[in-house]
Amino acid sequence: MAAVRKQFIPCTLCGARLFKSFLLCEGFSYVRCAGCGLVQMNPQPLEDEIKNRYGAIREASYESGGNSYGEDYLAYELANEEAFLKLQLLALKDADFQDYEGELFNKNGSSNNKPRILDIGCATGSLLALLKDRGWETTGVEISGPQAEYGRLKRNLDIKSLPLEENHFPANYFDVVLASHLIEHLNNPAALIREVHRILAEGGKFFVTTPNIAGFQARLFRGRWRSAIFDHLYLFSANTLKRLLRENGFIIEKTATWGGLAAGTAPPPLKRVFDRAAKRFGFGDVMIIRASSVP
User: Fold this and answer.
1) Is 1 inside a domain boundary?
2) Structurally, how many domains does the chain consist of?
3) CA 71/CA 88 separation, integer angstroms
4) How far apart (Å, rounded) are the C-alpha atoms in residues 109 and 89?
5) Which strand (E) or helix (H) includes residue 289?
6) What distance in Å separates the CA atoms of residue 128 and residue 263, rounded to the nearest whole number?
7) In CATH, what number is assigned to the domain containing residue 188?
8) What is the C-alpha to C-alpha distance for residues 150 and 171, in angstroms, rounded to an integer?
9) Of the candidate ranges 101-115, 187-201, 243-257, 260-274, the one whose mean pLDDT is the lowest
């Protein structure tokens, strides 16, 4: 792993400066805030380092051939997008997305006033394409150049290639914002949440999906947990993520988790038992939170 410049930062959730060692991984580590319990890399890679890392992906061009890294990333997404889409739809179902979708369409009736949805980190746009077919006015944000261009060219989607805050969307514009497996990658997750709050219509819904550091697999595997990777600057629990959302203007409406045991780690009957228990008791490997904006 190439050396990167890092700096010590206060806790992004509570501002504390006291941390305890928490996870030792291969080549890096996580600490836990002594004040609020948020798990994070600290010292943390500088924001410029993160921008440079993802900038290489953003600047690759699908139409012009791109670079090998961008092409490999696109190939990986295309090979797995059917499975990823299935997981996204199951997560949204757990958070009652369909019920809210029905409410919006009933409210708008048959007029041209389609409900608006933004998917941040939309990859190749497979979910947006499905929602567009269901009548949504769709917009995506995806900084990976090859993936964004694929969605624009192959699926005729409106996908922006700049980070969320740099798109300057109108205030109170979207009825729904989605962010799946994104927030853990950001230097400043609170800034993204504040921007989502600004662009959401009053009462609009924010569906955020991320790995769950309080889940069974995280506790079992520790530094070998599959979500304890260098690209993840933060590892949230339901409690720390809900607090971050509340402190930036959201009301928490629903939390769901899933994934008791990873595939291949236990016989299928045992895995099914753990998976049902994880969903029921909230110790799943991944979580989704539905939050509503307030003025």
Assistant:
1) no
2) 1
3) 23
4) 24
5) strand 286-293
6) 28
7) 3.40.50.150
8) 28
9) 101-115
